Queue: 2 jobs
Job 1
Amino acid sequence: MPSSRKPRYSVIADDVTRAIEDGQYPVGTLLPSEAQLRAQYDVSHHTVRDAMRKLQELRLVIPERGRGTRVVSRSVTSRYVHSLDAIPDLGELARETRIKVLRRMRIRRHQAERALPDHSEDWFLIEAVRSTAVHPLVWKQVYIDARYAKAALKVGSSNTPIYRLIERLYGEKLVTVRQEVAATPINDAVAAALKVERGSPGLLIEREYVGEFGRVFEVTKSIYPAGRFRYSSELHLDHRA
């Protein structure tokens, strides 16, 4: 059964993707109509359309005016689509990929390549690459407060997200993620790890993970090569104001 935390449109898209891959809907044929899918899953037309949009983003189908949605590929392209609706979704990437640790060391705060919170002088620095079955997906640099050494030492042997490891081992609950996203050229060392050309474009995501007492316990820097990753989120307008 799909995780209940997934949006309904994502569940439908996953079901249809598997059906396409299994040959239930061969390339060149039309998917069931919107009305049929609405009845099958007992959802609104908005949900079905969101599911079809996700299938289009995966380049499995194309819409044809007046006819329906046609299957154009049996397999998903190599681009990874990561949807983010809430903090638990941050763990999807960890569960769906494999990680290889390139280096792990304990450092003093002043040795870090970036500014770290001053509530701790000792940190673990981990550099790693996450990969799909097809190719390297992301290079990561992670700083973990040394208070959580057991979690830092499990990175690489466990596919559980780091913040989940810290919660399970120490009871520190994640309540806020601060995030910045920017374009960046990929430097030589990262390009070699990701098997792309140096200087090629990449997506940089920097995050700070904040616990329930306002203390940052994890800081990450992630670089994704252009063309291998698509980052998707859904925003809702608050009409209460």
Job 2
Amino acid sequence: MKHPPIPSRDLGGKFTLNNPDDSTPITEMFELDHGLLMITEKCTYRVQVADQIDPDRKNPALPPNFQQKLFDYGTKSDLLCRTLLQAKVMFRKEFQSVNINRAMQLSFDALGDLVSMYEATQAFKSAERAAIEKAETLERKDASQTIPAVGNVRGSCKTFVQKADHFAASLLD
């Protein structure tokens, strides 16, 4: 008697985090937002199994798991350690009477806003450095002074302040 093939998601197996830029070991792992967060020294990833994506099993061709790099910040990052990993220690059912899953999700959202703020700051600083270097290399042809300028400063500041507001809202929640 011939049996139908076993779907790949029903077979045992293993996987690796597919990021050639990150060969560091997984140092933290916990469930969050219908997936598993895996944190290495350099990066943070979300891994979901096929049954989380297709619980009705309508697509038997799905691979057993899906992985996505979320942040270029891992356990070597103060930003991640002082937010998400500190929340993981602080929000435990043994210590708190709050909804732990919601608190962890809000902490994760706050981390996302902090990462956006940090990256916006770094992008602005880089643009500022480039403008200063360009102004310094200009040949002076007369007695005028060229002042370095970065375009769309208002937009950069607005982005930063909006992310700071989102972070504050996550903290209040």
